Records
---
Amino acid sequence: MQFKYYNITNQNRRGGIFLSNIIFKDAKITKPEDNQPEQIKKIFPYISPVEKGDIVAIKIHPGEYGNTTHIRPVIARTVVDLVLEAGGIPFVTDTTTLYKGMKLNAPDLIKGASMNGFTHASMNAPFIVADGLRGGDGKEIEINGEALGSITVASAIADADSMIVISHGKGHPASGFGGAVKHLGMGCLDRAGKIKVHEVGRPTIDPKKCTQCGDCVEICPWGAITPPEIDHTKCCGELSCADACQQEAIIPPPDATDKMQKRLGEASLGPIKALNGRIGYINWVYDLTPGCDCFNFSGERFVEDIGILAGRDPVAIDSATIDLINGRMKPDGKSIYNVWGVNPWVHIEAAEKIGCGSREYKLVS
């Protein structure tokens, strides 16, 4: 059974299909009164699910320390202030990760976010780790997908009354593109949920290539690797070990990327269902680097800035974002697929199929 997604935005009908309105503010606008905070102030009333008295999660990715192209604290602050004006009680939030870095546990995540400028003083709201001290705080949500029957959503998100998801549109080595759907289907999950999405990527080691250098052992936080063996009862399938292997001895399953993306798309229904669809989405599409904000560095942009998109349908907003990116890349004969050789429509279509939204949209200014 598909979950009927909640969308209060004005819609348009084309050939029997309802089109979600996606608001687009082009980065090429240069008037002082059209700076990014002012654009968000104009957009917010059309996408806000906030009711007076709501406890409102504002989901961001604060970036690993060393990354400088994540969304800026001023963007989060603008949304916080708008939630307060609407009578909501906001908190800014993110979840722990499966890889080593400054997001593996709550204290490090809060420290890393602070180092990148995301503090109570800068945002006018507390920063809360949604899945608890070690990522184990979640609520199981039934989604009845083809690959996933249920998924576990971080408790602080599942327990909120409504949510604003602010996504940095960019490339991603596993999903091709990272936007609203990935923020839902990965960033809003607890550790168990993330493992459910990633477990199809559990790799093996080619003993002929393995030099037992120990790089993979060092990078794995779960103690799953004793070269040339990987203990799949401990391995999460996150594959940072494969990225760390200079000998290319760690081999993921050949269909891992597509299977992971399909699970990612289905998992995005979890937060939507937990919050009864009371979610607004902002895609901040500047500094389009190939890598995710979880990289501890920022690579060169692969296309010029696009702007800000906003709506109430995560599938539509990501579809519009990808289409705009591809439009800017088209003169060079390329698309976002060429960044990593990964087709992002796999997870977008999986999210559409399970009922998170529609790829049909109409851009409005």
Note: Confidence is low (pLDDT under 50) at residues 1-17.
---
Amino acid sequence: MTKQTFNSARGRRWLLAPLAAAALSGCSMIPQYERPAAPVPAVYAGVGVPPASGPAGTAADIAWQDFFTDARLRQLIDVALQNNRDLRVSVLNIEQARAQFQIRRADLFPTVGVQGTAQRAPNAVNGDLTNSFSVGLAVSSWEIDFFGRVAALKEQALAQYLATAEARRAAQTSLVASVAAGWLNLLADEELLELTRQTLATRDESLRLTRLRFDNGASSELDFRQAESLAEAARATLAQLQRQRAQDENALVLLLGQSLPPGILQPSARLTPLTDLPAVPAGLPSDLLITRPDIRQAEQQLIAANANIGAARAAFFPRISLTATAGTASRELSGLFESGSWGFTLAPSLLLPIFDAGRNQAGLESARAGQQIAIAQYEKSIQSAFREVSDALAGRATLGEQLRATRAQAEAESQRFRLSDLRYRNGIASFLDTLDAQRSLFATQQALVQTRLAQLQNQVQLYRALGGGWSAADTAAAEAAMGQPPAATAAR
């Protein structure tokens, strides 16, 4: 270690040189980012431009606690947000991406450590063995980011971190919608099971009466066998629905991450009609760029790919690094901290690539291809979101009329069965008319429950497709549970 004091003019010049270079390291080779145009129409098909006096806000402004009014469903969603393993992995992915960003950000600064050395070697003059000891602060191979390579990698890591945070929000919107759909399926299963039990009881009674009439010669065996067939068909349907109900409960339990809370499906609650959900404003397709977390995630990944081009460009330019030490050195251990033993060493180095067999060019081409891939994925996410919203809007426009017609059909079939049974009991019509009316009534009642389920699930899907299902409070709570600062502040 050179024994020079820090107050010498020459020493000051050597120290100021790398600091000046570091100050000039604001050069960035990242291409200017421009958001690609949304590859979708300006309005949704069949919706048109919303009126100026229409509902303000978007679906994302409606918290899931306000959208789902059923207290039992809110309880299930809250349990899922705390225990769902996929959502837990999404939160942990944020923590991992945040740590990677902090690593990249730390590369901008020198790593300072305490370094001590002891050496015993022959003297170059007389060959005698001599000792040398040193201790001090050391900076090892700090890259002075004159051309912005390290800064570009930091920006890339930051965008990846923000994309991971958006992925967590997207996972929550999907989870909330999936729990709601699973709960609605379970309620529909309960209604269908009760309807099938009632139908089976009616058909068993009809079979008993037909058997009595057949045994007394008042009815043919054909009538008896037809009644028996309908009763067994209802019994088979009941077994199928019981299996479906168990499978739907298992699917819901998987989403919750634990078994159903006790008492949430009490016998008195099973016959509760499916709860209505509030309507949500559709807005414009451009709103999706702000409200859909998966689209924002794709855009952050595009920003990361754009920053990666800057790092690939900077690789063509010289890489300047600095190794330095400042401390004390002596030939004797006892004199290590004596006056006059202090000094420093500076060892800047520059590496200019001349021949690398096309490695840097291939890296740049790979980065540009990655950017084009990210653009295509970003545009695809917008198109997929547009399609999901359009499908849900088409369902909202038609399912109401379908439900009204199915309800009227069920009422008509109920009257038809009552009249057919009355005509049969009075000997005016054949038993075949009664059985046909009974079969049609059961099928229509099942269709009515299924249509009502489809309408409610369509509202849930529209809410999710428009970006509803997460809020800033949910995100802050999840990050606080993991000991993380909010993404906006951690990025600074």
Note: The chain has 13 helices and four strands.
---
Amino acid sequence: MKLLVTGGAGYIGSHVSLQLAEDGHEVVVLDNLSTGHAYAVIGAELVVGDLADGALLDALFNRHQFDAVLHFAASIIVPESVADPLKYYINNTANMLNLLARVEQYDTPHFVFSSTAAVYGMPEVEEIDETAPPAPINPYGSSKLMDERILADLAKARSALNYVALRYFNVAGADPQARIGQDTPVSTHLIKIACEVALGKRDAMDMYGSDYPTPDGTCIRDYIHVEDLARAHVDALNYLANDGKNATLNCGYGHGASVREVLEVVKKVSGVDFPVREAARRDGDPPQLVAANARIRKTLNWQARLDNLETIVAHAWAWEQRLSSR
């Protein structure tokens, strides 16, 4: 298929683009490189540009007649969304409207959307399934929920469009060959931060809250390997190409690890016993966020291949070492 991947030079988008190219698809990546990197686009055409540029979008859609769009381009840092909500509603929602207007105008049949578990807010359940009512607590989650609703409304109005929205939990790891990985200047991801501390890129590791109602007092999260997440997008595309119905699906393993457990694994893999400072809880951190994943396994026939915390950390560590040697 001929595919447009927006944000395909970023962390998750680049892994999906690479898998699609390796599967033989013709991939065009559109990225403004604000957080992505040209080197991360492997086996695909890179077009540097912004979703706010309607003329550019028209030219791309007119030239290529895409079979599907996979949409990753978004701002994703929760504290920043609270401090600068307009940036998130413009980049995440207004630009999604620009993109969907072209999807409709040029009769693009399939759409895979990068959503987030942040749409759930702080549900009072240990395992979240897709029937949990959305209740985002920050502009990031709200902007993504708006996108989901716009996409669903458009698909309802235009029966020729079908879509899958994938709600990510905690993404981590890197390409097993260390060709690509997370390379954002200010990361808020626990495993990446811990690897940077182990390499001496950061001065210290803060652990926010140690008195949660969990076995070791620290928050529990569902960490999914970026390669398994990327494969979920490939499976979603294949599902839609085979007349799959519209679906909204969680992406996670169905079990979690605590902050303390993650830090111990990073220490073990890196061989560095770095210090950890206990800090106060952060606002909006629920004790546990774990995905119920029965629906994605049944709908897409998706199977986890790298469901092992030590493997996830080992790949993240190898990538950080490669970044440091550049």
Note: The first strand starts at residue 2 and ends at 6.
---
Amino acid sequence: MNSRGKLYGLDHLRALAICFVFLFHYQLPTFGHPDWLVDVAKFGWTGVDLFFVLSGFLIASQLFVQVKLHNRLDFKDFFLKRFFRIIPAYWAVVAIYFCIPFFRERDALPPLWKFLTFTQNFGLDLSSQITFSHAWSLCVEEHFYLLLPLVLILLRMLNAARQAYWVMIVVFLFGFIIRAYSWHTYYEPSMVDDNGVLLWYRYIYYPTYNRLDGLVMGVALAALYHFLPHIWEKVAQLGNWLLVLSVLILTGAYFVCYNEHSFVASVFGFSLVALGYACAVAGAISPKSILYRSNSTITTFIAGLSYSIYLTHKGIIHITQAVLSKQNIPIDSNWMLLFCTVSCIAAALVLNRIIERPFMKLRTKILVTPTPKSG
């Protein structure tokens, strides 16, 4: 942690998450890729679950600090912070997708209204709407930004803040039930059909109500961190052991989810992954852990660009491969992977400098008490 209270451990995890997401998408059939990458990046889909746990912890922490300091929630302050952090860069990339067809990694682009209303992840049909499909996770995050403050307000109105853990338990258990129902109702009847996998993504993988595990884990960790300091102090003493536990749980999750479309993986896999990454986040914010004490300019740099990389990487990979393949660079070569990596970082840096940073500075001017560390 630095003098401004920035948790370097979370930067390490954020950098890890975006690397996972990038490599997982790179090895998909959409792009040319080295053969070795398929096995290496198979578990990379969980990078988005790590982002969910990080968001749950950071966003809940931001709200919990308001409650502790002012005994109230400032909706205007909270949503303005989220708006300036998320929307300008997102709108810019959406505009690029709709105005510059060459940027699209595929031709099947969902209608604009789904992007503007953050409803793209409901009923997402990969056969006709696969372009910019990775924005589904941003939809989940936006729904979370809206629902969490409302739930906290309701709990305070009912004077039931001390029973908030029951809400988290119910939401967590609901995930098992709705995923089991979705698997049996929508996927199982068509699993032998070519359309079966598409239905699995549509009804199990993408919908917000199926993907709350990581966010709930992050909120639970934030509650422990802020409201139960006597327990957290004991947990924090196990910083490095929490990281070891995270690796063990995620290793188990890898094998459970090896066939990600199976019933067990579909119902329990997301929760197991969320638990593993929650242990990693807990370790990263524990003063005793190696992640907490270490500072890396590389991971800080990548973490700072993670949102821009997330938004643009598929389009940039597509453009890079289209251009360089004409220069006789094999599309499935390691050199192509290296060039695509560099071009994605360069494009993200441009988006960060011309969109993200100016709007973050504007946010600082507008808001009286900004909290930069929550991103």
Note: Residues 8-374 form one domain.
